[in-house]
Every structure is written in structure tokens, then in C-alpha cells.
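Researcher: Go.
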Amino acid sequence: MEYWDVYDEYRRPTGRVRARGEDFLPGEYHQVVSVCVFGMDGRMLIQKRADCKKQWPGRWDISMIGNAVAGEDARQAARRELREELGIDVDFTHRRPNLTLTYQCGFNDYFLIRQDLDISRLRLQEDEVAAAAWADRDQVRQLLAEGLFIPYYPSVIDLFFDMQDGYMYMLK
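Model: Structure:
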């Protein structure tokens, strides 16, 4: 069973936890993390969600999205989830999220990184990820239009691509 720390609307820990799948009460929130990996050519690494996933099975998504488990901060969760889902190990210790978006019951911290990878060498977590591919902005927008990508606002996808040329972490 996976447990998540519960935060208040100001992102302060409440000292409570909720089990994954358990409903959040009004005023309770949890931590989500996302990573967008961009290659040196400006394409984004995208992943296709496994068909067994409860939400959006078989649809394409950004490089990685996951939940922080109880006791983890966003940086620790980003490292763990990226390693688990794609086999990529990145130390986020001294990195701040590039962007935070809020939604109904959580805070989602987005980390944008640039790293060329050979996708054939990725270690995909089979129960999470069915495939990985490089995609440019137009390809992601086409997948969105066809209903084959998680339903992000197109402007959010554009923001990720626009931000890659600005404040971003370069990996060695």
C-alpha cells in the first residue's frame, strides 16, 4: 500500500497521510512530481502508459509523472519515479522545480531537464510504461488532437517546449 503525506492549501504538512486511492477531504492536498526530459535537439521524451493503467491506459504522456510517497519531498520523488519508470538516474538535490501547477487535490512540481538519451537503452517499468519516444511540439500537439495523449491543455505543452530554451537544467 502506498501512502501520501497530506498538505494544507498553503502546502504545509498536516502530519496526516492518506492511502493511495483514498478520498481527500476538503482542504487536503498531496504532492505530485513530473519531469520533462528534452534532448539537445529540442524534442521531448514522451512515454506511452501501459494498457493496464487505471487512468488513461495506452495514452502518451510527458516523460514522467508520479506521486511523492509519505516522507519524500518533490526532489526525492522525482528522482525515484524517473529511475523506476524509465531507468534514468538524476540527482535533483540542488534543483528547484521549473514550474508548479495546482489541481483539485494536489501540487504538481515540474522539473525540465535536457539530456540526450538512447531510448533503446531505457529500462521501462512494464506495469507503468509501454514505450518511449522522442517527439517535437507538433507531434505532441497532433497526439493531443487525436486523443492519443493525456488531455493536457495545448498551452501547457507549449509552455514546456517554450521553457526548455530558458530556465532549465543541463545534465552531464
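Model: Strands lie at 3-7, 13-19, 30-38, 44-49, 60-61, 64-67, 99-103, 106-114, 129-135, 169-170.
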